[in-house]
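Data availability (excerpt). The following record was deposited with the supplementary files.
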Amino acid sequence: MNTLEQENSLIKGLASNNKQAIESIYKDNYTVIQCFILNNNGTVDEARDIFQEAMIVLYEKALTGQFELTCQLRTYIFSVCRRLWLKRLQQMNRFSNNTDHIAETISVEEEIEAHEKHNSDINLMENAMSKLGEPCKSLLDAYYTQKKNMQDIATEFGYTNSDNAKTQKYKCLMRLKKIFFAEYKNGN
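Predicted structure:
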């Protein structure tokens, strides 16, 4: 099934309240919209609201049975969200210029490409982390994700002092970097 057929299938699924179709549309599109709104004076709550409004627009169009995509679904959703967001910014006086002028300068494809590149890099990093092995994986997680200090890490991992833990963290980071860039080279 090609992309157009898949997307038309998702729209039909949305019109018939198919849970899988709705979840697929959310999963494939929400993070792009959230990034766009956060990067343009918005909050996570506002991103959710705007995305929900766009889903309602798409749902109402899908219900007509005559809605036909002339672009990719993600481009359509992004365009609707962008217009809704610019309109809301103007209403809240956070944006004073004419929205038509700004809409021309924001490239949907560039936003989406940047987001997809970012997602690809995150996937590469997750893959590299999965290949890193223990105790490096847990040590880096403790430091970067759990925000533990080096003394706590030294105690938890059995290092004699925080300097030894710091040295091990550095070695683990260099190993991760090597794995990541090997994957990056092969993927691009």
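Summary of structural features: Confidence is low (pLDDT under 50) at residues 98-105.
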